[in-house]
């Protein structure tokens, strides 16, 4: 177990120098922030299921992220098409099971069908990870009602069962590998939970991290490094912020500053 | 009639302490700001019509807001399902008849079907309220072309006919009850009309206010208090703002500051 | 050929005094910024394909913009209905062929069907214009992989063939008329490419410019002036910005300042 924040320098430099094309199926509440986070980090995002995009962009992207709440503006069919195209081309993809366990059986079933399709990474809050693992936790809409401590054991079961990295966001983020390894990322700032889409955008940035990490064995480190980057940007942004509005603006600025794309 | 701004302290404290789950069906232009406004005020929003959400979240939320322009990204069927679920569970809901009266008969008919389903509150600009009341006013797209003075008499007729509180936004906001009572909220700032979705987000915040106001007889005061909160946050934000961009950011900050969730 | 930035004063004053109603079918990633850009410039935007809107708003708007990536949240049928309504009422419209040439044949075909319907202006990046003109350029998602120098000759062919003004965004923007005239707009700032939707919002502002330019022979000047306005606002915003987040906020502020709607 590793309690120190991992070094986010190497992954930052790879994202900036490779500018990976990252494709996302996400919800319209989070889409703009997600695109701006990826652009600030140096990646090249495209979002949405225009005709023909899921199959084509799923196959040609460096990484894909699928945010279940994207079902508010895309069909399950389109999402599964993007996932299948990514898998056929060995494009790593991230599943974000937003609002899993909030009491909507039809919706949860779609997420389970996605999860059965070999995501490289599953990221979510404690309630979502517990619900996907089959635990009894229930969410309230998109908010977690469970704690990280409750979620980690079930997250480890889920990682092992699906052969995926499981990343749980909370006061401390826990990134779990299928073989039982774990990295804990401290820091960050509570205001991340008051900016809509901040968690969703992290899913996109993880897909960018996967896109520049060709060796599957290095994914645990890559995902942990992206979480550490998020935490560091949040800390930079929180200092001068006067509330969640200026924090969100400053968070995007901080990602670009950390990337060397902007000056402090 | 009451010309002073109502005290927004009590409703602020209730929203913050109860953190109500508020469900919204709104349009993608306004969705992100709406979610951020609700989070800054201390509520827990979920937005959009993913499979199964309208019936489940409509029933389980503390309050629901339905923004007619949400028809750009949800079906009338989904909106009516959420409304019916809310009504069946006695969840109070807010109708925002965006662009009513702009000359689109098919669209206006859907709004009339919603309005016939017992909303607790109807909020809109002068043109929209006049059009829904059956007056001759016409809007231009989503912009009002009528004045508050023209709209108030028709708004009172509408409130009485539907048994709903009617809130009309303008240079002064007028909140009208079915029994003829009226509260006028002064203040605010003209820049609210230059930030897309600011009116739509107010609908969400009113739903949060209803969620923490169990007694129907206290709803007039609650809706007026939410309008006063909006006006006060706008005034706080306008001082240091250099235009509508920084005003929007500062407005979200100001809501959090008024909630005690951020420092000035 | 004209290398100096055109004067954006006259078009600014006309937009502000006439506040044209501008209707847009665009994507949810760019919609909020697009609406805020138009509001900051003094126009009155409505966005999206609610039932009945495409035919009604297409006919009644002063200008229409159709962003092909809007196909992530509207049908081709709705987009073509808005275009046909605009044409029937002689409302000028702007086509933005986002992601044209990125390797999705089905999607590109829809854009070609739009382009065959007499747009007044086509605006895009170098890859998109080359692909629409029939060149071999390929994009990578929504990012250009071609240079302006490669795109201008094909853009001139496209302008002549379709009888449309073709505006190509890049380090220098080139605005081309069907009769071979050209205006080059220098300036602007590279951060425009790191703010999602900034190019898409420019399409909306061009539609506002067309709405206040009744004489077709003055459209080249009007489109160039809108590009110059964009460049000037970007330069104003870049100075105090600390990254793409504060740049985007400052860009909206700067448009309002240039319009006299806000103080510097």
Q: Ranges of chain A with pLDDT <50 over ≥5 residues?
A: none
Query: Any idea of the CATH topology of chain A?
Result: UDP-N-acetylmuramoyl-L-alanine:D-glutamate ligase
Average pLDDT across residues of chain A?
94
Biggest sheet overview of chain A: 8 strands, mixed
CATH 2nd-level architecture of chain A: 3-Layer(aba) Sandwich
Strand order of the largest sheet of chain A: 2-1-3-4-5-6-7-8
Number of strands of chain A: 8
Secondary structure category of chain A:
alpha/beta
Task: Characterize the overall form of chain A.
Answer: globular
Number of domains of chain A: 1
The first-level CATH class of chain A is given as Alpha Beta
Which protein chains make the most extensive interface, counting residues with beta carbons within 8 Å of the other chain's beta carbons? A-B, 37 and 39 residues
SS field, number of helical segments of chain A? 10
Helix coverage percent of chain A:
40-55%
Binned strand content of chain A: 5-15%
Structural account:
The structure is a homotrimer of 264-residue chains. Chain A is of the alpha/beta class. Chain A has one domain (9-258): 3-Layer(aba) Sandwich (UDP-N-acetylmuramoyl-L-alanine:D-glutamate ligase), CATH 3.40.1190.20. Chain A is 47% helix and 14% strand. Chain A contains ten helices and eight strands. Chain A has an eight-stranded mixed β-sheet with strand order 2-1-3-4-5-6-7-8, with helices on both faces. In chain A, strand 4, helix 5 (105-115) and strand 5 form a beta-alpha-beta unit. In chain A, helix 1 (9-18) crosses helix 9. The longest helix of chain A has 20 residues, at 219-238. The model of chain A has no long low-confidence stretch (mean pLDDT 94). Chains A and C meet through helix 2, strand 2, helix 3 and helix 10 of A and helix 5 and helix 10 of C.
